[in-house]
Amino acid sequence: xxxxxxxxxxxxxxxxxxxxxxxxxxxxxxxxxxxxxxxxxxxxxxxxxxxxxxxxxxxxxxxxxxxxxxxxxxxxxxxxxxxxxxxxxxxxxxxxxxxxxxxxxxxxxxxxxxxxxxxxxxxxxxxxxxxxxxxxxxxxxxxxxxxxxxxxxxxxxxxxxxxxxxxxxxxxxxxxxxxxxxxxxxxxxxxxxxxxxxxxxxxxxxxxxxxxxxxxxxxxxxxxxxxxxxxxxxxxxxxxxxxxxxxxxxxxxxxxxxxxxxxxxxxxxxxxxxxxxxxxxxxxxxxxxxxxxxxxxxxxxxxxxxxxxxxxxxxxxxxxxxxxxxxxxxxxxxxxxxxxxxxxxxxxxxxxxxxxxxxxxxxxxxxxxxxxxxxxxxxxxxxxxxxxxxxxxxxxxxxxxxxxxxxxxxxxxxxxxxxxxxxx
Length: 424
What we know:
Layout: E1 5-7, E2 9-18, E3 20-26, E4 29-34, E5 39-45, E6 53-59, E7 64-65, E8 69-72, E9 75-82, H1 85-106, H2 112-119, H3 123-135, E10 141-146, E11 154-160, E12 166-171, E13 175-180, E14 189-194, E15 202-207, E16 227-235, E17 238-244, E18 248-252, E19 260-265, E20 275-280, E21 290-295, E22 309-313, E23 321-326, E24 342-347, E25 355-361, E26 365-369, E27 377-383, E28 395-400, E29 405-410, E30 413-420
Antiparallel strand pairs: 1-27, 2-30, 3-4, 4-5, 5-6, 7-9, 8-9, 9-10, 10-11, 12-13, 13-14, 14-15, 16-17, 17-18, 18-19, 20-21, 21-22, 22-23, 24-25, 25-26, 26-27, 28-29, 29-30
């Protein structure tokens, strides 16, 4: 076992597997959505946490990644989203603008090398852009799988959506809460599907922020795709939605066919990192309802705080108020300034008691005790050693099973099972 930095946590096993975007553990199996094609989804038997065993692999097309996954009973959903989506859309727009500018200045169509030099990219990258333009993209959506035989998943349905396709999402026994682009809208919106017949998902309703529905005559008050749904998590008759640089929303779905915005709160733009996940704790703290919010570290801006964890008082949804934040210092990880990200990404998406398990990129796993929501404190940490060939650990996602075991997924490479042992 590689040497690691840890406090109150011990490693049980490590599996050398391609990096991923999400890990979900249920009934002794870990479901891993991989970051890069052609790796799609892996199913790992973790009934013996010391000996995880890969039992199934699903591949994606060369142009899509399926880096998110959810499971409910014998049904598994995986997303289908354009790989390198932001790069391709941004650079294709720049390609058009640069070609037009060069044509005007040269008085002729630019040559291949001239265009690459203008864009400050390699010839291979320019060729990739031209190929992407020619083939287009129509693979976006989500897939529904029968996993009654975990070793042999069976595709029931591919549900197409639009644009980039589907990003992160939630599901339960009846519905899927999908974050996706759709025709006539700018940025991802919420589309709820009925899964009563898994072979035929039926759209139930949509929700979006005012300004997203271009085809409906709305005009955004922002530039680009900065205001969009990242994903929404269901708690009772509410959906708790992270909406990137627009903060958070609480959506009333007591009538699931007519989702209504119940509350909104934003701390942007003065906080520069986008809002990734919003979730209320299951218990109350001295009568107060408390929600946890994860910001995601992106391209860190020097002089600004790294992405961290927020705690909000959401007892009164008409008066949401911040309680505290939790941050990890660059001094707390030897890889904080190595290539890769340092800062928060995500926490496990069920908060039953006082502990919040956070995936902190190069900061590894941080366990935060929120027993006093005004003063969150670190209860343990675990920083994996980078796997061979990687410059830093990139702990991207975390889940905790009914045994209390913790599952870590690295963005670049590696899957690990660890155990929280206070005062170990």
